[in-house]
Amino acid sequence: MKRDILYFAWLRERVGLPRETIDTQATTVAELVSELAAREDRYALAFSDPGALRVALDQELSDFTSPLGDAREIAFFPPMTGG
Amino acid sequence: MKRDILYFAWLRERVGLPRETIDTQATTVAELVSELAAREDRYALAFSDPGALRVALDQELSDFTSPLGDAREIAFFPPMTGG
Amino acid sequence: MLDIRVQAAPFDYGTECSNVAKGMPDIGAVVTFCGIVRNNDSGTLQQMEIEHYPGMTERALEKIAMDATGRWDLGACKIIHRFGPLAPGEIIMMVATASAHRADAFAAADFLMDYLKSRAPFWKKERTAHGAEWVAAKDSDETALTRW
Amino acid sequence: MLDIRVQAAPFDYGTECSNVAKGMPDIGAVVTFCGIVRNNDSGTLQQMEIEHYPGMTERALEKIAMDATGRWDLGACKIIHRFGPLAPGEIIMMVATASAHRADAFAAADFLMDYLKSRAPFWKKERTAHGAEWVAAKDSDETALTRW
């Protein structure tokens, strides 16, 4: 299934791009992370500590154990620092 | 000793004046209150429930058990409602 | 750093908010509170008259502000309180605190308001077509002080 | 009643404070918070760059504001948050809450800030002569959420 993957802040800088569309068989966030980390060194580095990351499915904060479901847009980023 | 006695809010309205100078032998706030309450009906009414009143000695909040000391200005008023 | 004013004249809340931390590089957070003459439930309030104790008021506000700056790391602390007759919707008073961090600014503003409510010599009288009545102090305002 | 804006442009904090409760007879209390780009201890900060997640940001802020209006009796709730490059001393964001009573206005503003800090998709990067660094989230910001 085709999904848009978005990266923000230092994750965006490590991966080297803000968004990309990939075709994936992953069914959970954790599976998607494993698939991305296996792609290239820069992805492996970016996702080396998933506990330090957050994920949003279609712009809703979610968990790494969540099923991807129909989510079109999956975003990864460091903990937020608003305000 | 001569002391200025001030009244505020509904206490001022009941006593019928905002301030007066009296010559008193009272040595504590409680004694002064008894003396004032004994003067006239309007004072008796104004001071009928001292628990509902507050006192300041020379512009510092104080207690009814406090000695009057050198205080020149003794103010009585209801609980404050600032803000 | 302390800015304390007791006045009959109106003041511009927006302007006072803007200038709390002007030119202070260490400030990351400003909190302001503004109290407004609220109408009663039946909408019949004509006027709120605020009486105060000139001299003691300034001293009490200064003490409260000093207590706040002693407890929290504040770069600025402002209290403006009006007295005299006010119409519904008019601004009664404001406080503003500025700090490096938000927790200090919030706690200090909250503290200022709690003490201002029951330790500063102001009294409110509400006037409607049916007459005038002094606003009674709330027990909850007195117990709020135990938080600190 | 909700006023939520995410923008690169500056806004006038004073004006935004003034108009929170304009024309609302039930409001007795307004609380505002304003976040400012604070310089670092050595005074070498050149710029703070704020990145955000367009679309999700607006949704997250709306959810946080809705949660606040569900928990407290608010007549108005405003959040303005900027993104892009900001200089030291510039205003980053503000929240404002209006209520009949001060306790609701204070609690809601404090709540909005706690959730905004760690549940709205903003990230800050600080630039000095020595390079740029992403601001790390603080554990204390995450634990602050357990207060609510």
TrEMBL record, chains A, B:
Signal sequence residues: none
Domain of life, per lineage: Bacteria
Gene3D superfamilies: 3.10.20.30
InterPro entries: Beta-grasp_dom_sf, Mopterin_synth/thiamin_S_b, ThiS/MoaD-like
Identification of the protein by name: Molybdopterin synthase sulfur carrier subunit
The organism of origin for this protein: Roseinatronobacter ekhonensis
TrEMBL record, chains C, D:
Reaction catalysis annotation: 2 [molybdopterin-synthase sulfur-carrier protein]-C-terminal-Gly-aminoethanethioate + cyclic pyranopterin phosphate + H2O = molybdopterin + 2 [molybdopterin-synthase sulfur-carrier protein]-C-terminal Gly-Gly + 2 H(+)
Keywords associated with the record: Molybdenum cofactor biosynthesis, Transferase
Molecular function terms from GO: molybdopterin synthase activity
GO BP, sorted A to Z: Mo-molybdopterin cofactor biosynthetic process
The family this protein is said to belong to: Belongs to the MoaE family.
Subunit structure: Heterotetramer of 2 MoaD subunits and 2 MoaE subunits. Also stable as homodimer. The enzyme changes between these two forms during catalysis.
Function, in words: Converts molybdopterin precursor Z into molybdopterin. This requires the incorporation of two sulfur atoms into precursor Z to generate a dithiolene group. The sulfur is provided by MoaD.
Full protein name: Molybdopterin synthase catalytic subunit
Species this protein is from: Roseinatronobacter ekhonensis
